[in-house]
Amino acid sequence: MPAKIYDENFVKSELQGMLQELKKNEQIYLINQLFLDKNYSRSRFHEWKKDFANNEYIRTLFEQIEGILENRIAHGALIGRLNSSMSMFVLKNKYGWISNPENKSQETVPLVIQIRGYKEKEDIQ
After folding, report:
1. Predicted confidence (pLDDT) per residue in 50-105, tens digit
2. Is 21 exposed, middle or buried (0-12, 13-18, 19+ CB in 10 A)?
3. Considering the domain boundaries, does residue 107 fall inside one?
4. Which of 4, 15, 81, 100 could cross-link to 61 by cystine, CB 3.0-4.6 Å?
């Protein structure tokens, strides 16, 4: 059986390189931009995330990369560098942001209205 090309050391090295690139280039907002000069597709990012989900160090690298990107999109929209509508679309779809957290639940809540000065008559049995 041939050696696995994308082993733990390779993935660590690639993710560390991506994290360094993010730190030095503040014009990177999307994960796709980190894969422009790679010999593999961006789908590897998601494959690695799944394959190394139990590796705490690699999982931390993924969280740092995604956290930086999420924050950059939000910040870019707030300061007018990025289109706010498109930024909100990305934040909602990629990072799970919601517009109205109190409307998140579809449960119904009973409505009780009390009228002052009105007292219900007790049923006589």
Report:
1. 999 999 999 999 999 999 999 999 999 999 999 999 999 999 988 888 877 665 55
2. middle
3. no
4. 15
For residue 115, is it within any domain? Answer: no
**Contact, 80 vs 63, CB < 8 A?**
no
* Structure token pair of residue 50: 């799944």
Give the separation between CA 30 and CA 18, rounded to whole angstroms. 12
Q: Which of 79, 65, 73 is nearest to 21 (CA)?
A: 65
- Specify whether the CB–CB gap between 69 and 29 falls below 8 A: yes
Selection from 42, 63, 41 nearest residue 52 by Cα: 63
Q: Quote the domain boundaries for residue 50.
A: 8-98
CB atoms inside a 10 Å sphere around CB 73? 23
Q: Is 68 helix (H, G, I), strand (E, B) or coil?
A: helix
Q: What are phi and psi of 97, to 5 degrees?
A: -65, 150
User: Quick check: pTM over 0.90?
Assistant: no
Q: Does 26 map to a domain? A: yes
User: Residue 125: inside a domain, yes or no?
Assistant: no
